[in-house]
């Protein structure tokens, strides 16, 4: 401690500026930590809710979503542990699992923002070149495009799935 005190300037204005900078940095780190904690909490709540719904019509979809959320949660916990943000233990997890039934969760309706620099992969689902009804040649009319966010080991990738729309030149039947 005495070595650190010797390295500090004697000017009160410089000391005040250093304190202000450290306080701003501390506030920014606190906000980041709070955002990570809130994200971890919401992921835990979603996983708990999905585990309760695992026996229904869409059990396979729910199981895949649970696996993806658990991977995302694991990545966040690893990132939090690496940044020494604070101990995250099983007691926090047990405490967060208890209020699942009493706390209504708000559903996010908007899409998360993904940077334009993100890795993108395009997959096209082509119905073929021949009409299944009459065997005539198909021409491209349009496409339905959907995007899926995929998190791979702390890396996000956008998978764009394009379902091509084609129509037959002979019978004008639409094929997807």
From TrEMBL:
InterPro entries to which the protein is assigned, alphabetical: Transposase-related, Transposase_TnpC_homeodom, Znf_dom_IS66
Residue ranges constituting the Transposase IS66 zinc-finger binding domain according to the UniProt record: 129-172
Presence of the UniProt keyword Lipid biosynthesis in the record: no
Residues in coiled coil: 19-79
Leader peptide range in chain numbering: none
Keywords: Coiled coil
Domain named Transposase TnpC homeodomain: residues: 43-109
Protein known as: Transposase
Organism: Aminobacter ciceronei
């Amino acid at each position: 401690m005495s070595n650190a005190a010797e390295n500090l300037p004697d000017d009160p204005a410089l000391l005040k500026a250093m304190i202000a900078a450290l306080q701003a940095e501390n506030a920014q780190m606190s906000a980041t930590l709070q955002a990570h904690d809130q994200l971890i909490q919401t992921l835990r709540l979603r996983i708990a809710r999905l585990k309760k719904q695992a026996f229904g019509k869409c059990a396979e979809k729910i199981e895949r979503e649970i696996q993806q959320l658990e991977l995302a949660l694991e990545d966040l916990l690893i990132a939090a542990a690496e940044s020494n943000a604070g101990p995250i233990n099983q007691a926090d997890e047990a405490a967060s699992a208890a209020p699942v039934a009493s706390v209504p969760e708000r559903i996010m309706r908007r899409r998360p923002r993904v940077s334009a620099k993100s890795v993108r992969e395009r997959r096209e689902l082509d119905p073929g070149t021949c009409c299944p009804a009459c065997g005539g040649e198909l021409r491209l009319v349009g496409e339905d495009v959907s995007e899926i966010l995929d998190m791979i080991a702390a890396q996000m990738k956008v998978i764009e799935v394009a379902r091509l729309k084609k129509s037959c030149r002979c019978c004008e039947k639409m094929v997807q």
